[in-house]
């Protein structure tokens, strides 16, 4: 039995992982790419000899600068919304008023999609 063309080609459809990338590829948590800059790579290197197997390099370690704590605490912006905050009746109506009473069902969504498609076809002609 012969292999398929896709199997024999160089392109692979599997996701790119750090193990499958080149020696500089570091996937991480998207912190390796600095906005407006170049890719910084891994924050250290593997060491052949020695007690530690991985050595961090100070010039490659990412440093995040935050504003002073006093400025954060005095800011009107807060990081999370409290569980005791509820929508008023007007706000709830503005958000959920467009939906049908029982929620949006699959049949209703299909009907809306067909309606939009027919309107788009009419506009094109």
UniProtKB/TrEMBL annotation:
The keyword Nucleus does not apply. It comes from the Eukaryota. GO terms for molecular function: structural constituent of ribosome. Pfam families: MRP-L27. It comes from Agaricus bisporus var. burnettii (strain JB137-S8 / ATCC MYA-4627 / FGSC 10392). Belongs to the mitochondrion-specific ribosomal protein mL41 family. InterPro entries: Ribosomal_mL41. Keywords: Mitochondrion, Ribonucleoprotein, Ribosomal protein, Transit peptide. It is found in: Mitochondrion. This is Uncharacterized protein. One of its GO terms (biological process) is translation. GO terms for cellular component: mitochondrial large ribosomal subunit.
């Amino acid at each position: 039995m012969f292999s398929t063309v896709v199997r024999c080609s160089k392109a692979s459809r599997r996701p790119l992982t750090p193990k499958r990338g080149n020696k500089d590829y570091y996937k991480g948590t998207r912190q390796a790419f600095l906005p407006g800059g170049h890719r910084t790579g891994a924050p250290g290197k593997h060491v052949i000899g020695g007690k530690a197997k991985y050595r961090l390099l100070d010039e490659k370690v990412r440093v995040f600068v935050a504003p002073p704590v006093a400025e954060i605490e005095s800011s009107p912006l807060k990081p999370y919304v409290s569980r005791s905050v509820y929508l008023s009746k007007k706000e709830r109506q503005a958000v959920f008023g467009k939906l049908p009473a029982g929620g949006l069902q699959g049949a209703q969504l299909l009907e809306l999609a067909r309606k939009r498609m027919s309107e788009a076809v009419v506009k094109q002609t």
